[in-house]
Amino acid sequence: MNGNELEQLVEATPDADTTGGGSNDPNSNNVDEEEPGGRRKDSHQESREGSRFSQKQQIIGAIGVAILILMIIVIPLAARNKTIDEESDKGERPTFPPPEKFKPCLEKASTNSTGCEKFNKSPLKDLADDLLGYSICPCTGESRCCNSDEQALSWMIADKFSSMLPENERSTRLKERFALVLLYFNAQGHSEGLTDEDHCLSREDPDPLAWAFINSCDANKTRVTGIKFETEISADGHTAVISKSIGGFDSLTELSIALDGLGGTIPETMGQLLSLETLALTGGFNGTVPSEIGLLVSLRELNLSYNSLTGKLPSEIGELSSLEKFHAHNNQLEDPFPIEMRNLTNLTHIEFSRNSLITTFPTEINGMKGLESLVLNDCSINGTIPKDLDLPNLVSLNLRNNLLSGSVPAVEIANLKKLTSILDLSENAFTDMPTEIGLLSDLTVLRISSNPLNITIPKEIGNMTEINTLDLSGCLLTGQLPSEIGQLAKLKSLFLQENALTGPIPIEFASILNMFSLDLSSNQLNGTLTSPISTLAQLTDTRIESLLSLESLLVSNNALTGDIPTEIGLLDNLSHLNLSGNNLDGPIPTEIGELQNAQIINLSQNFLNGAIPSELGQLTKITELFLQNNSLTGKVPSELKRIQYISPLSVEIRTRINISGNNLTESSLEFICRKDSEDDKYNFPELTADCNICPQGATGEDSCCASCVGASV
Questions:
Q1: Which of 73, 104, 606, 631 is most buried, by CB atoms within 10 Å?
Q2: DSSP for 118-178?
Q3: Is pTM, for the whole model, over 0.90?
Q4: Measured between alpha carbons, how far apart are the two ends of the chain, in Å?
């Protein structure tokens, strides 16, 4: 019923007699009317009938008013939703061809005039244009290019949930949902992870693909508070993953987008996310850091790593008064840093490594009282470390692989009283290390490898009683190993390889009870292994148990002499033993078969003699056994056939064994090389031996002798 019909109904209805019995006719004399059959109506009966008629009139009038009110309310609502309902195509989502079938759209502006004419007055289109800052139209099919923004608009037009939002929430939630869909299509290029369900409630659905990039919502399950995206960029010609629509997430506290492709620039609208506490944009963003980022005053963690960001940091970065961690490594940022960074009194961690355009030590951060960790490795910092470092709470400093020169500033660094975690100055051009290095008595990790120090190791290094990792490899060190190293009771890893150290291994090394890695390879050390290792064996039972910690013993390419001590079998946690390239002689001790955790044993290029011990067949974890270029004799023990390493993933790995360059008995490999069945393809090690002892026809990739050395006979 329309308004005219209602008006006609009201006008055609007689007025009710409010007196309860009379008519409004002026000619009426209130005479009782005669009923058919000659009977007259009683006046009271007539009054009752009039009253009933009056009630009917009132009911009809009330119904008419109610209908009129409903029409006033419903018609505008229907008109408001009519466009969306029409665009929904009767509730069916438009089907998109696979992304690879779309013609690539290199321009963001749409040329789809047909689509624009059809949806020109859509509130969704207006919202999209407002979010993006430019006009777009929905997709119309494969006949023309369709970029990710247009796909997102098409999806939203067909989205049932959007049309069911309550009026009081419609504006904000529709804006947020559209921003979510735009972000998803820009990154993924398809709609497989989107559903018609409430995007917050669907996170609790068993379907792992439904809005999976939403990391958290608020307590009311109505607003998104966390987004975590890890994706490869689709090749649809639209490279801006984060568009201006990012401003639609005004409730976000966490935004993490990790890309593997082109992500475009960081939009200025990022500054609208005033509730943001964690921001991580990694993997594919370029351009400069926008100054609007300084508006994110609630930000506690900022990660801009692994991008192609260029230029200088904006001075507005100093407005991030709540910032605690700032990571921007693997970019092309330039120095100097803004002096305003000193205002970041809550900042505890800075990591700007692998920015090759940072060429000087950032004195702008000097005086940051709260800074605990500074990581600037793999930049191009040259010159020296400032002598007036004022970082009183610094715990860790990493300046590895730069161009720093001069003397290691031990005194200045020692003034950093809380520097107790890591000092990494390796791969620079330092030419001296003063004895004051011993002042770093609380430091736990010191790495100064690959610097042309050309000095002897100062004995004061024994004062670093808290050290657990000491790396002085590749520093042209000369002289003997100081016995004071034996005072470092907490030392776990000692790396002194690739130097020019001479003399014997100090017997005091046996006092380092917690060591699990010792590398003295490629020096000029002499003497025997017997003294330090035998000393270990003479320690009390409690100390012998500590030998379980030694996992790696590397003393290759030195001038060590004598035999391999039988006590080597006590190192039952040893996984890597390399004694190659020395002058060791005597037999291989049978106790070596007790190294049940050994994976690599290299005894090559010595003067070892006697037979290969059959106990080597007990080493079930061995992957490499190198015995070549010694003076071993006799038969190859058949027990070596048992060596077949099974990895923790139950994958069978063919163990590599090299026994070439010895004086082993001819044809002693027949048992090892024999297959137990036709399918027994890898039931023997991958063996390298002298050709004269390999069975005839048993050389090749799938054979026992994978390769042989020398001429066959």
A1: 606
A2: HHTT-HHHHHHHHHHSS-------TTS---HHHHHHHHHHT-HHHHTS-HHHHHHHHHHHH
A3: no
A4: 112
- The structure tokens 């260029």 sit at 310
Characterize the bridge pairing of strands 254-260 and 224-232: parallel
Q: Which residues of the chain fall below pLDDT 50?
A: 1-41, 43-44, 46, 74-104, 106-112, 143, 234-239, 539-546, 682, 713
Of 493, 505, 496, nearest in space to 476 by CA: 496
DSSP of 607-629: EEEEPPPGGGGG-TT-SEEE--S
- Nearest residue to 400 via CA among 368, 366, 445: 445
Q: What tens digit of pLDDT does each residue of 3-54 get?
A: 344 334 334 433 434 344 444 444 444 434 444 444 444 544 545 555 555 6
Is the separation of the CB atoms in 479 and 502 below 8 Å?
Answer: yes
At 532, which helix (H) or strand (E)? helix 530-537
With a CB cutoff of 8 Å and minimum separation 6, the contacts of 330 are 305, 306, 307, 353, 354, 355
Q: Tell me, what's the pLDDT at 529?
A: 83
Name the 3-class secondary structure at 406.
Answer: strand
The whole-angstrom separation of Cα 65 and Cα 384 is: 89
Q: Quick check: 514 and 546 in contact, CB under 8 A?
A: yes
Long-range contacts of 283-286 (CB under 8 A, 24+ apart): 283/257, 283/258, 283/259, 283/307, 284/233, 284/241, 284/259, 284/260, 284/308, 285/242, 285/259, 285/309, 286/262, 286/310
Cα–Cα separations (whole angstroms), residue 462 to 442, 512, 513, 553: 12, 12, 15, 21
CA angle at residue 130 from 220 to 195, to 5 degrees? 45
Q: What is the pLDDT of residue 591?
A: 94
Burial label, 20 (beta-carbon count in 10 A; 0-12, 13-18, 19+): exposed
DSSP 40-64: BPPHHHHHHHHHHHHHHHHHHHHHH
- Give strand pairing partners of 302: 279, 326
* Burial of residue 79, with CB atoms counted within 10 A of its CB: 0-12 exposed, 13-18 middle, 19 or more buried: exposed
Please say whether the dihedral angle defined by the alpha carbons of residues 441, 442, 447 and 451, taken in this order, is positive or negative.
Answer: negative
SS3 state at 515: coil
